[in-house]
Design a protein that fits this description.
alpha+beta, eight-stranded mixed β-sheet, Aminopeptidase, globular, 8 strands, about 30% helix, about 190 residues
């Protein structure tokens, strides 16, 4: 568990699954993130129970708490210790706390964990070009645009571009102090 101010990132728990399911039906979140099509509650529960109980080695899934309430999640997916990289994903599902710095703080905490504890050298994100809040958040904390994958995905039945952004460990620590005990050794 890592905390900065009123924001904490912590491992997901089984009790979080009903809220995750409710978020999965939010059309705004689906539009901006491209979540997979809706699935039955039973199938959704089985999928996330497995992710919480036995997470794959290439996934770190953390709940975002703001003032003790779960408001979203952040993940490091496709985590490769060999390549020392991971893909960042995040959702601030609670509309009441969006655009207040909660997402940025959670992303910074998750990246600190990834660079320090998972020994990553690079964290990258893939974002739809119309998801301006996510692009602004990532660029605001120091991500660099690296390119555009043209017509890379099918989103709501149409081919769409994907913007690739990345940050390297030394770039991150030049901007953000470690919040982990002992920090990152220099």
């Amino acid at each position: 568990m890592l905390t900065a101010g009123d924001v904490t990132v912590r491992p997901m728990e089984l009790d979080d699954i009903p809220l995750l399911h409710a978020w999965s039906k939010d059309l705004e979140i689906e539009h901006e993130s491209g979540w997979a099509p809706w699935m039955s509650r039973a199938r959704f529960d089985r999928r996330y129970e497995e992710l919480v109980r036995e997470p794959p080695e290439d996934l770190v899934l953390l709940g975002i708490q703001y003032r003790e309430a779960l408001v979203g999640y952040v993940e490091l997916a496709g985590l490769s210790h060999w390549e020392r990289r991971a893909a960042l994903g995040f959702v601030v599902a609670n509309r009441a706390v969006r655009r207040q710095g909660v997402g940025a703080t959670a992303v910074i905490l998750a990246m600190d964990y990834g660079f320090s504890r998972e020994d990553l050298d690079r964290i990258y994100a893939e974002v739809y070009p119309f998801n301006l809040p996510s692009l602004r958040l990532l660029e605001g904390i120091g991500f660099q645009r690296e390119g555009v994958l043209r017509q890379h995905e099918v989103h709501q039945g149409h081919r769409t571009d994907v913007v690739v952004l990345g940050m390297l460990r030394h770039e991150f620590y030049a901007r953000h102090p470690s919040r982990l005990p002992g920090g990152w050794p220099t």
